[in-house]
Specification:
This protein has about 325 residues and is α/β, with parallel strands linked by helices. The chain contains nine helices and nine strands. Helix 5 packs across helix 7.
């Protein structure tokens, strides 16, 4: 297939291509995904594909600059019903099964390999994307068609439900029958916004993103979507294998709070970092976990010193991982 690139909202260095996915298995009309690319270096040495998390989309131009400066052709994927790809009437980020994302991930990889034949590919994923991507890699490997990916970097991947044992246990079990009858029912949840305000320019942050695509208080969570996530969690907990060297990055602390203090800028406000550390080894035998002190939930949106440290960890790990693969 030949992609049709058109200008993207991020400016002259960015273009986007719409990936048609056909009728939505979840009954919300035609669905599509959006692949974004940054103008690549003249002779790229590898490719990076970025996958966002829940209530998120690709806007992290600093991340694109980092990889481009290292010689990579950078792409990012807005998944179905997310960010640029969401269409009127569709529930933001809703899927009944995380495996539905395999379609746009597969098509993105096909487009990338057509444009850059024989170049190695690193997949970078954040939060819920950090759950979606390893499950996809594991399914590809188990089905005998491993993705042409040689490394994965997971930025604060969502590997378990944060909160009490009651929430992780009995309440989760109750989702199974509920998801069959009221999959799109919105679950009650406290109104947040501390994290969003801590990173957006309208609050105390430095990042200017579209709050229609990434609301400061997030999007509502539905029964069917959370059930899909919890099924993904259970699969990870049973043990999977991405099949490639995998780096897991996370902060050194969690700080759940309903009000902003300076501590909010130096901790994960969204996920329990102890859970990330606990379950990361379940992603496969070639998983490396790196704690980056003082980082936020999105480590690449941390304050300058902390995000520079995160970039340094990624650089060192990728260099070592690729040297090891080259010598294998």
């Amino acid at each position: 297939m030949t992609p049709t690139w058109k200008p993207d909202v991020l400016g002259d260095d960015y273009q986007q291509h719409t990936i048609a996915l056909g009728a939505d298995p979840d009954g919300e009309g035609e669905v599509e995904a959006t692949l974004v690319r940054r103008t690549p270096p003249a002779e790229p040495s590898r490719v990076v594909l970025y996958v966002h998390g829940f209530a998120d989309y690709f806007f992290q131009t600093g991340l694109a600059d980092f990889f481009t400066d290292r010689g990579a052709a950078f792409y990012a994927l807005d998944l179905r019903k997310c960010g640029r790809a969401r269409r009127p009437g569709q529930i933001a980020h809703y899927v009944s099964d995380l495996a539905l994302y395999d379609d746009e991930l597969d098509q993105s990889i096909e487009l990338i390999t057509s444009a850059h034949p024989e170049l190695p590919i690193t997949v970078v994923a954040h939060s819920t994307g950090g759950l979606i991507v390893p499950l996809w890699l594991n399914r590809r490997r188990r089905n005998g068609r491993p993705a042409p990916v040689d490394s994965a970097v997971l930025n604060s991947p969502w590997l378990d439900q944060q909160g009490s044992a009651m929430l992780r246990g009995p309440i989760t079990w109750a989702l199974i029958p509920l998801a069959r009858v009221i999959p799109k029912r919105v679950l009650p949840a406290p109104v947040g916004g501390v994290y969003g305000n801590s990173i957006h320019v309208s609050g105390t942050g430095e990042w200017d993103f579209d709050t229609a695509l990434k609301p400061l208080i997030g999007f509502p969570v539905t029964v069917g979507w959370l059930n899909a996530v919890r099924r993904g969690h259970r699969t990870v907990h049973q043990g999977i294998d991405t099949g490639v060297p995998t780096l897991v990055l996370h902060s050194d602390k969690t700080h759940f709070t309903k009000s902003y203090t300076e501590a909010a800028d130096r901790a994960d406000l969204v996920l329990d970092v102890k859970q990330i550390a606990r379950w990361a080894p379940s992603l496969g035998p070639r998983t490396t976990v790196e704690v980056v002190p003082g980082t936020r939930h999105d480590v690449f949106l941390s304050q300058l010193e902390a995000r520079q440290a995160a970039y340094g960890v990624v650089t060192s790990w990728l260099d070592a991982a690729h040297r090891s693969e080259d010598n294998a």
